[in-house]
């Protein structure tokens, strides 16, 4: 045995020296190559540079929010009587709701996909953008007679009312992001997976199946749900599993199938349940089908390779579009506009008008947002 070991050792050393490489240097070289490969993979995996593909998804997500507000928000969900009298029109509205309900989930998951990194510049930019539009819109609405200068308006200005739930939830997510990032960096795959499953099981039971028992997480209108979405997106970025290996086309097909499945359940439960459309429980941010569609669009987007200055510029104003269109002072006029349009035009014409208006609203706000961007560039020099 000793003889065999000596022979192998001699051949190994002879082979190394015949190549003119010192054994110690060869070991160092091997380690260096291994390190460089590991660093390259890490650099590719954890790069903070946002490609245009995910910037495009941010544009799509905010546009989906506007479409949502032109559907169930403005018109309410089709009742049993609506389905009975107009099955095709009601089905179209339910399908559009199913296709777009994941908008908020997607917006939060994009933050989780790249990871929120705390910086003085980042928090000041977020706060400046938020209060820039809260103040400007309130002043303009007072001048136009849409709002009054009163205590309620001032409270809404500083997010002290029940409105602007998304902003308050996202601010808390931003605050605790370092803690979440620390957990992600320390936990192994098994621990991470356990937390994701058990966490979602909790919010699914008490925030979705029995929402009246725990109001603060009901329906997903909660920073607790945002935390889970953030962690889910981090897991999707860090670890490969069967779903993340889908191609772009396959992911889009499954996304569409899931939306049609929701439509089928909603229509079916109408015929089973009579007066109530029980399937609408699937049309919530927290529902498994909504999370699934958000994941599928994230996966589909990750397969794209796009580089566009125009997309990046429009995406830079996506949050501004959201701030304007969900502002409490503008929600009622927004709802009245689409309600009037819906009762004026046919179903198909209505949705074509909605798509056109969404594009016009987005571009118009993006143009106006150049003022905010210009001001911020001047301010950030002093921050």
Automatic annotation (TrEMBL):
Report the domain of life of the source organism: Bacteria
Where is the chain membrane-spanning?
A: 56-74, 94-116, 123-145, 165-184, 191-210, 216-236, 248-272, 278-298, 310-330, 350-375
Name the UniProt key words of this record, in alphabetical order. Membrane, Transmembrane, Transmembrane helix
Domain Acyltransferase stretches? 53-365
Gene Ontology molecular function, alphabetical: acyltransferase activity, transferring groups other than amino-acyl groups
Q: Name one Pfam family in it.
A: Acyl_transf_3
In its keyword annotation, does this UniProt entry include Transmembrane? yes
What name has this protein been given in UniProt? Acyltransferase 3 domain-containing protein
């Amino acid at each position: 045995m000793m003889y065999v070991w000596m022979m192998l050792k001699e051949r190994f050393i002879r082979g190394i020296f015949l190549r003119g490489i010192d054994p110690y240097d060869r070991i160092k070289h091997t380690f260096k190559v291994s390190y460089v490969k590991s660093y390259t993979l890490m650099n590719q995996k954890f790069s903070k540079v946002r490609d245009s593909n995910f910037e495009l998804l941010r544009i799509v997500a905010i546009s989906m929010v506007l479409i949502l507000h032109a559907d169930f928000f403005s018109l309410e969900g089709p009742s049993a009587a609506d389905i009975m009298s107009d099955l095709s029109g009601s089905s179209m509205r339910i399908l559009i709701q199913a296709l777009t309900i994941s908008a908020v989930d997607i917006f939060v998951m994009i933050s989780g996909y790249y990871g929120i990194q705390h910086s003085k510049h980042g928090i000041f930019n977020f706060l400046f953008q938020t209060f820039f539009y809260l103040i400007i819109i309130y002043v303009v609405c007072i001048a136009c007679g849409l709002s009054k200068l009163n205590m309620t308006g001032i409270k809404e200005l500083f997010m002290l009312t029940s409105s602007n739930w998304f902003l308050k939830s996202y601010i808390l997510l931003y605050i605790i992001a370092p803690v979440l990032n620390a957990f992600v960096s320390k936990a192994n795959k098994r621990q991470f997976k356990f937390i994701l499953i058990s966490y979602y099981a909790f919010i699914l039971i008490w925030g979705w199946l029995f929402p009246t028992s725990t109001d603060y997480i009901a329906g997903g209108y909660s920073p607790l749900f945002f935390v889970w979405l953030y962690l889910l997106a981090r897991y999707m970025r860090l670890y490969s599993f069967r779903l993340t290996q889908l191609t772009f086309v396959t992911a889009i097909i499954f996304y569409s199938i899931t939306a049609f499945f929701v439509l089928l359940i909603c229509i079916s439960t109408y015929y089973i349940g009579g007066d109530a459309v029980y399937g609408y429980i699937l049309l919530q941010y927290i529902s498994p089908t909504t999370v699934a569609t958000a994941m599928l669009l994230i996966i589909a987007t990750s397969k794209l390779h796009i580089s566009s200055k125009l997309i990046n510029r429009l995406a830079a104003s996506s949050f501004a579009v959201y701030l304007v269109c969900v502002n409490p002072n503008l929600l009622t006029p927004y709802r009245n506009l689409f309600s009037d349009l819906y009762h004026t035009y046919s179903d198909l014409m209505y949705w074509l008008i909605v798509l056109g208006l969404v594009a016009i609203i987005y571009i118009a706000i993006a143009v106006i947002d150049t003022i905010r961007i210009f001001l911020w560039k001047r301010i950030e020099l002093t921050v």
